[in-house]
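INPUT
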Amino acid sequence: MMHRRSFLRGALAMGCSAAAMPLITHATFASAPWENRLVVVILRGALDGLDLLRPVGDPGFAALRPRIAADPGADLDGFFALHPGLPGLLPLWKAGELGFAQAVATPYRDKRSHFDGQDLLEAGTAPDAPAALRREGWLNRLLQTVPGAQAETAFAVGREAIPILSGKAPAQNWAPDARLELSAQGRRLLEEVYHDDPIFRDAAAEAFELTELAAAMAESGADDSGMAAPAPTPAPAGGPLAEVDRFAAYAAARLREDTRIVALSLAGWDTHRAQIQTIRQPLQRLERLVLALREGLGPVWGQTMLLAMTEFGRTVRENGSQGTDHGTGGAMLMAGGALRGGRVVGKWPGLDEGALYARRDLMPTSDVRAHAAWAMRGLFGVDRAVLERTVFPGLDMGGDPGLLR
Amino acid sequence: MLTRDGIAAMRFGYGPHGGRLPQGDIAAGLAGPDRMAAALPGPGTDAVLAERAQLLEIVRRGRENPKAVADERSAQTDRIQEMFFTAARRDLARAVVAEDGFRERLVRFWADHFTVRAPAAADRPLVSAFVDDAIRPHVAGRFADMLAAVAMHPAMLLYLDQRASVGPNSPIGRNRERGLNENFARELLELHTLGVGAAYDQRDVRELAELLTGLTVDADGAFVFQPRWAEPGAETVLGQSYGGKGAAVLDDILRVLGDLAVRPETARHIAGKLAVHFVSDTPDPALVAALAATWADTGGDLLAVSRALAAHPAAWKAPLAKLRQPFDFIAAGLRALDLTAEQVTDLPRPRTQRVFLRPMAAMGQPWQMPRGPDGWPEDATAWMTPQALAARITWGMQVPGLLRRPLPDPRLFLDAALAGVADDALRTAVSRSEDATEGVGLVLASPAFNRR
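OUTPUT
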């Protein structure tokens, strides 16, 4: 471990030249199990898929959303339109770097609880799976099957623990603005004090390592926000977009090195009221994340796929306070240079009352896990049997939607 | 050596205060007066709403010409911000100096059970007022009364969108094309009473949402029951019919809340939460069963339930395995440093940020801003991320020196802070630290101090 750390620091000390030549960087860091990158974004609070990706071509849509979809948004393919709050993503759609899966859901039904819904989304199991499986995240179960995976292969970015990466396989967790200043003696004493308490010992070891890494990056002339060009216009400091910029820059810096999987979450999607206003900022943050990652990853963007998924969709009808309540079928956003985008995958179920789930929600026509499984099959070459039995136990992936270029 | 008084301080309170431990029965004080509310009183909901209404009035007046009211507006915004800072310091100070630590911990438990979050910056002081007015008076009272107080408090009505829910067939609903919002009704069943595992379905959520219409706030943000917003007719929740005879009345809503409060599912749900919060992430089923039985026997009498918790043998078993949440960590740290109430309430704003608000966010618990209405996680691993531990270590190494000069001798501090749970490894490490800053920091960063 010590050896790897100093190796990494030496490489970083070479400065920006390594990042400017990403192929050489990969050759140098030969420990990563794959070349392609996956970013999974958990959208907490239940994103309204019908607002993000509006089925304006469905004859029933306008009447269901008279107020919150009064501005129809930007046409994508003659049937679906993109929410008007995401103009920055339109060029990606045109370039084939943005796509969607619609009418998707996890196997979770009926109770419509955010918390159970998110747990199941991150566990990637059926609701009746054994408790031990439900406590693990599906990205962690993927790592467990990969012989070459190291702790730095997968990274959770943010202040909070993210269940999708929790489990037996090591994975790292850090917030870009976290700091730890300690004398050498203080650190040695703490290591002794933590020695017999595993959760403290492991968290501290990772904190020490990541602090060293950040210091090394700073010494080499780059801050820990990475060496690539910053996002086009810097966001106001302390604001909600500035935090997204920091996450994206940090994630991009790691993905340009040995990290192959990044997980993070964006909250704020529970738009029960005044949805036109309340969904604006979460959408801006999502747009910002995609654009800042694309910017920060540089050439590596071409090997990257981002999946943004949520616990469930929302009611097809707007409610009495110009918002939407908890529903079932929703949408997943996909982006990245590795994506064969510019299209919406999944079967459209229709909005007639009889076609709805429980006469109120969009009927799910595919399992959100199947799309994630096909993405991992394409990005990492994972066997279908491993995906259907181990990563998502009991999943039927169905036909190949051809998500990769 | 961990004694019963040591467990009382660590597990049921915020740790020893300047080395002093609570004596005797931890539940003894619950039947008496709320001393911290009297010693460090808050302004109350009405005073907070008045300042908020004042700001709204200034904004309204400035609609034509915002510049004309700009100074007034920024002065009022600052008043509201000062209210928030004052409340944050007061809430922390109560935990730091309380002799009845169990009551203060119960207040936090119930405030988390009924999580609210301020929808806008101008609403931020409302969260502490909610806890003072809807939670505190009932922690040793009846759960049904707490539930009713919560359901009639503007902080909850704003947070879970109830103020915008209108019966679709009510006079206002028909005339203005407004309708139902299910948010509060769903969380009321899922989080506040029955629990998500209970046998209720979407129809119960819907009918409860219809029954709750009329609960809202007026133009100044004060609670009001609006019969003209209420869905007419009877509603059936869990097989029981409510209302429908004549005009809609608040009593029908209070009746459903009273019934939900004493359901066996509610008793089991909250008994489990209490045991998990105070004792263990995997509590003894006998403890949960005993709490649920007391709940059932007394119709949700929280004094009796809290006493049952304090009296159960499983609640006193070592080891101290729960992880202190960031608020507990900071309060316990300031108690270990023997701070007075004034030393906390007199902190200037930048110090309040440095000592309390920024570290809370860095440790993963931004003050009064939980991610969702389910409140903060209990599981130790949710709090022990590398970045959150780094923030705890940093607090332990840097903050004590800002507040106490000279720092205490780390070897004495170790015994004062830890109520006898320090092991030899920690004792040795502290004695070998380079200076008092590092020694005190080691104590505060240690697993022994971070568990309860």
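end of record. Chain A has a mean pLDDT of 87.
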